[in-house]
Amino acid sequence: MYRSKGQAIFWGIICGSLITAFGIYKYFETQSFFAGAKETTAIIISVSNKTESSTEDGQKSYHKKFTARYEYTVNGKTHTDDEITTGQTFEDSKYSKGDILKIYYDPANPQDNRFKTEAQWLPVAGILLGLFVIGAGIYTLKTKRYLKS
User: In which order are the strands placed within the sheet that holds 100-106?
Assistant: First the structure.
């Protein structure tokens, strides 16, 4: 597929750079959101277990997906969202109908809301993964290990 392993490593470094750049973008976007966000409380109004199916290599598999719908009020207007989604079932989930949550919303667009812990580790993980791929590619190119196989 590639003309040389060096070319594959080069494209790996490019992909690592893109992953790192996207991680940095998401990190600053998340920080910017929380810097201007307001805190409020939300209440879970319903919970559901959905079964989804997928087919891979001719094998059909089923996956239960837990979803919690919640509502919160900003300036007298009630907003609803069903952003809490996990691969857990009712029995495994830490969320129940009537639970109170702390959320953060954008004052300019109150429908845009997030949890403080929600995916804050994801941009950092993207940055670290991208840097690892770049570092592995550079190390391989410098040591010319790709020529030995």
Answer: 77-86, 59-74, 38-56, 100-106, 109-114
Half-sphere exposure (Cβ direction) of 97: Cα atoms closer than 13 Å: 5
Q: Which residue has the tokens 């040591």?
A: 143
The one-letter amino acid code at 62 reads Y
Return averaged pLDDT per consecutive 10 residues of the chain, 149 residues in all: 68 89 90 92 87 78 79 95 62 78 93 76 86 87 63
Length of the chain equals 149
What are the Cα distances from residue 10, in Å, to 37, 39, 88?
Answer: 40, 45, 39
Give this prediction's pTM: 0.66
Q: DSSP letters along 110-125, please? A: EEEEE-SSTTSHHHHH
